[in-house]
Amino acid sequence: QVQLAESGGGLVQAGGSLRLSCAASGSIFGINAAGWYRQAPGKQRELVAEMTINGETDYADSVKGRFTISGDNAKNTVYLQMNNLKPEDTAVYYCHARLITTHYWGQGTQVTVSS
Hints:
The chain is mostly beta strands. Helix content is 0%, strand content 57%. It has strands at 2-7, 10-13, 18-26, 33-39, 46-52, 57-59, 67-72, 77-82, 91-98, 103-105, 109-114. Strands 2, 4, 5, 6, 9, 10 and 11 form a seven-stranded mixed sheet that branches. Strands 1-3-8-7 form a four-stranded antiparallel sheet, with no helix packed on it. The mean pLDDT is 94.
């Protein structure tokens, strides 16, 4: 069992920045990827950014050049630096970790970007 705890969401104006943090605890050995998904009302949950254990990263086209995912192994924490935020970035952001056949999710943190 893995527990994921997000923090860092909030309300910002368009063009502003936020940094999300996700701290993992529990049986974290064997996790091979971690990252962030988001879901806006009426929309499907979508991948925002993901990092593998090898350091490879993947970003949604809509956030490339604006968001950066990083990790701190010593703290078992993954971060999402979000710059130049846009109103369309408004969503609940979920921390995510995966093994080959098991997925873990945080409870979500709200990010709201005003016009």
